[in-house]
Fold:
Amino acid sequence: MIETEKRDNLNQDLLFSIIVPCFNQGEYLEKTLKSILEQTYSNWECIIINDGSIDNTEFIANTYCKQDVRFTYLTQKQSGVGAARNHGLRNAKGKYIKFLDADDWIQSDLLEKCYPPHNVELVLCQAKFSFLNTKILHPYHCNITKINFNFENLLLNWGDGFDIPIHCGLISSDLLKNFAFDEKLKIWEDWLMWLFISKQNPSILKVKNAYAIYRKWNNGATSNRERTILDQFNVYQHAIVLYSVNDRISRNLNEKVFKKLFLEKKTLELELNHLKN
Structure:
């Protein structure tokens, strides 16, 4: 189901829990929290989880908590974004969950325009992005409303032309009852969440307009690209075991990683040759 129009007479009894993990992102946190405070739909709670930050995260979080009782501030030793999101999930009271990283933000009418109709378990909206410290918003690289949200497609084709930013979803808390983010993974922990949700065959509303905005960080060092590919291999192995993936699909996933490593090696050789010349 795809929808673009505003719905009137929204039931204000429906509580949304917005979970904001933060690690040394105080510079951007105020914009994130301000975008939540300005929501035109008022029945929400925001749970801020400080993942061991040493910047001004605590000051900004406490400022918003004093300003509005809908904000809650939690702290933990530095344990990673997965652990912070799990901390938030354990304390969330809402019927629907929204994850929002501390350097991203949402349009002021997101909750209103993405309000789930009766029996809809998952709402997905479009996204836009901005490069670090710029105000220009760019379209996301794929049309989220056209993604085939089934387990095999997400398993096999994630990262090859499409993905779903975690802050594009409003997720029924029932879908996440038995889910926890893997706290050891360095990347794609959200991919495992989408796989978990897709296995439940949820009813979905797709909203054509973009109400979620994320910051794009430039990180193009060769060593980081190689590390990311190896981390991707580790996530694949985790998914293969977790979902008892058959041999055919397992080979397909592993071959994708090996091809990426081969191409990365060729790219590195070209860069080194260019430097020598």
User: Anything to note?
Assistant: Residues 222-276 form one domain.
